[in-house]
Amino acid sequence: MTIRPNQEAPATWALEIEDLRKSYGSGFEALKGIDLRVQEGDFFALLGPNGAGKSTTLGIVCSLVNKSAGKVRVFGHDIDTDLAGAKLNLGVVPQEFNFNQFEKVFDIVTTQAGYYGIPLRKARASAEHYLKKLGLWDKKDTPARMLSGGMKRRLMTARALVHEPRLLILDEPTAGVDIELRRSMWTFLEEMNRNGTTIILTTHYLEEAEALCRNIAIIDHGEILRHTSKKELLNQLHVETFVLDTEQALSVAPALDGFETRLDGEGAIEVDVEKSQGLNGVFAQLDEQGIRVLSMRTKSNRLEELFLRMVEDNARETEAAQ
Amino acid sequence: MTANAILTAFLTIVIREIRRFTRIWPQTLLPPAVTMTLYFIIFGNLIGSRIGTMGGFDYMSFIVPGLIMMSVITSTYANVVSSFFSMKFQRSIEELLVSPTPNWTILAGYVVGGMARGLGIGLIVTLLSLAFTRLQIHNLPMMVLTVFLTSALFALGGFINAMLATKFDDISIVPTFVLTPLTYLGGVFYSIDLLPGFWQGVSMINPILYMVNAFRYGILGVSDVNPYVALGMILVFIVILSVVSLRMLQRGKGIRS
């Protein structure tokens, strides 16, 4: 089932995908006719478990994978009739490192600019700008193989931006990057998006999608399960579980009127709270029982909960259909 | 892309290729220079002095054009096949595939990059040969045209080999088992007049024989075959291999899933 967000009369679509299909020689159907639209200026997440079809979809958009059927347009440029026009508007940060490990950082970025027809002087200026922005300028003469994993990922980001694309596609941009670097990457991407670059990312860190993205599509087994705004998606989450750490150790979960409670393995209270209930009732009842709460957190990332639920539902439906 | 942008992309590929083989010059430029010097000393000086003349020239003068051509052919082919396959292997070919550079520009960039190495080595070997013999030039346009077109042809051959290769073994099979025997049997060291009639006929189906002889004609003015027929053949092969290469690129053979 494909559910599309409210998409009337957009100014411009950064990406339009219609009935996109990909089958391999073995008969495996990686994409089963997906539809997807991303509006200009959006910060969009394409989520799905491993093998769901995320990288295949993005691979087709970037022309690294041949499609079997369907239409793809990047800012109106059809990849069948105006591939060069589509590519000029597109920057790609792939999941795997795909640069020459023996080349120097600066050469990799300026060479990429050359492939887009940017004259050397301008290419050098642009490479300097993005390498500085991504904290790699002091490594400009270092062979790429000498960089750390996080630096290599930032190098690929600088390379993808050197021709200043209007649409930036990032396939797992923060995989293997430490928390500090991940946060600085988020800040950088948010700034790029504020400055007008449309961003599409795939990520396994759903916290990342929740923090950054405005619209989300969930893909599984080559089909789009949901395609909607993050707000609308999160509204579907009726019950959230909160974990409360208390001052005194508890041996049994306190009974709270109207709320389901239990203790987790470390003695903290888990409370299921419906959206309509709010949290005041929980704290009031705990206060009455003399239980002092030191800290509180959600049990899991909200988007993660929804995502897992959808993927599990889809797996059950697929199994039932078989 | 505008014509200027395409030119920039083309030059970017060529410059990157030149930067690559000059960065690793002990692997790319030095070995053919050493090997050819040994050929000049052993075959030209030591053995050649006992052979006497061939085709009306002393043996050293006779083998120099063939040895220059041999180094051009092997170096051009090796450059394109190893460079393009390495890019496939490291997936850095994706840098080019996501860019708007047209396929024919990618092909032209690799061919010219390979030619730069092949012709550069040809020049080095020519300069080295001057230490052993005096080179005369009988027909400069024929000499230049032959070496340029042959180099382009083997660059295209290397490109197709790289597109089809799936492992490193695949890029050494053709140079070892096809190119080297054909070159050695292509009239580098002898005139086919020395062979019995049957083997002369067999030699005539070796395309490298035509290239070596056309080049030798440009330098010495002697050839076992009609040099103009040889030039025509090289041109036909260039057209065929260019079409094949472009079709493979278009279909993404071995580079797109």
Protein model, in words:
The complex is a heterodimer of chains A (322) and B (257). Chain A is α/β, with parallel strands linked by helices and 322 residues long. Chain A folds into two domains: 13-231, P-loop containing nucleotide triphosphate hydrolases (Rossmann fold), CATH 3.40.50; 239-302, Alpha-L RNA-binding motif (Alpha-Beta Plaits, 2-Layer Sandwich), CATH 3.30.70. In chain A, 34% of the residues lie in helices and 27% in strands. Chain A has helices at 54-61, 83-88, 105-115, 120-133, 149-161, 179-194, 206-212, 230-235, 280-288, 302-321; strands at 13-23, 29-39, 43-47, 69-74, 77-78, 90-93, 167-171, 198-202, 215-220, 223-229, 239-246, 260-263, 269-274, 293-298. In chain A, the strands form three sheets. In chain A, strands 6-7-8-3-9-10 form a six-stranded mixed sheet, sandwiched between helices. Chain A has a four-stranded antiparallel sheet with strand order 2-1-4-5. In chain A, strands 12-13-11-14 form a four-stranded antiparallel sheet, covered by helices on one side. In chain A, helix 3 crosses helix 4 and helix 4 (120-133) crosses helix 5 (149-161). The longest helix of chain A is centred in the last third of the chain and has 20 residues, at 302-321. The two termini of chain A are 16 Å apart. Mean pLDDT of chain A is 87; it is low at 1-7. By secondary structure, chain B is mostly helical. Chain B has one domain. Chain B contains eleven helices and two strands; from the N terminus they run H-H-H-E-E-H-H-H-H-H-H-H-H. Chain B has helices at 3-23, 25-28, 30-51, 59-90, 93-97, 103-129, 140-164, 170-184, 197-203, 207-220, 227-251; strands at 53-54, 57-58. Chain B has a two-stranded antiparallel sheet. In chain B, strand 1 and strand 2 form a beta hairpin. In chain B, helix 1 packs across helix 6 (103-129), helix 4 (59-90) packs across helix 10 (207-220) and helix 7 runs antiparallel to helix 10. The mean pLDDT of chain B is 91. Chain A binds chain B through residues 24, 59, 62-66, 83-85, 87-88, 90, 92, 94, 96-102, 107, 111-112, 114-120, 159, and chain B through 1-2, 4-6, 8-9, 11-13, 15-16, 19, 23, 86-87, 90-92, 94-102, 251-252, 256-257.
